[in-house]
Predict the structure.
Amino acid sequence: MKASLLAVGLLFWTVGFLYNWSRPTLWIFDLLVIPVMFVIYSVGFVMVIAGLILQLRPRVAATTVSVFTVLAMLVNPLWQIAPRSYFLIHRPFLELALTVDPGNDLYGAKLPLPLQFLTSSGSVSSPRADFDREPSERSIHFFPQWIGIPDGGGGYLYSPEGSPKGVDLYGDPCVEPVDLGDGWWMCDMALTGF
């Protein structure tokens, strides 16, 4: 019983973790899938901790709580609630992702597998300037956190030359960019202030 509780809990938690890592977009089905994955993820976490405590391994349970919490902070979509905090946590990873050349494709180039969780598409792109469909002369990197259907998007931008106001974010302009410091901006994200 104890071992099966732990095994099923690890399975549930792993499924939830991989879902959040890959960040798939299932369009209208996200209304159902996101809450279900949250429940699976949470139940798996509780089952793992309960299984370890029942096996009389409190130190391993405490360590597991710490490790699972850190991993959850990295891959969960905290940007929806506190985009500034999410940025602060992920800034070292985003700066590492700046080494990827976004190319000229509208939706950019794929990030390396360990960094794909940083964006909703697993890619980094270079926004178009003023909807001319030509790559901007400026060195802007766009890390989309959401992509709209049929168009539009929002996320973090690295624009060391100044404000990215007016650049094309997959069909909608960046209207009110928020300065995050050192050339980093966020546009079309929840402005919760956190």
Q: What stands out?
A: The first strand starts at residue 109 and ends at 110. The beta strands are 109-110, 123-124, 141-147, 153-158, 168-169, 172-173, 178-181, 184-187. The chain is about 40% helix and 15% strand.
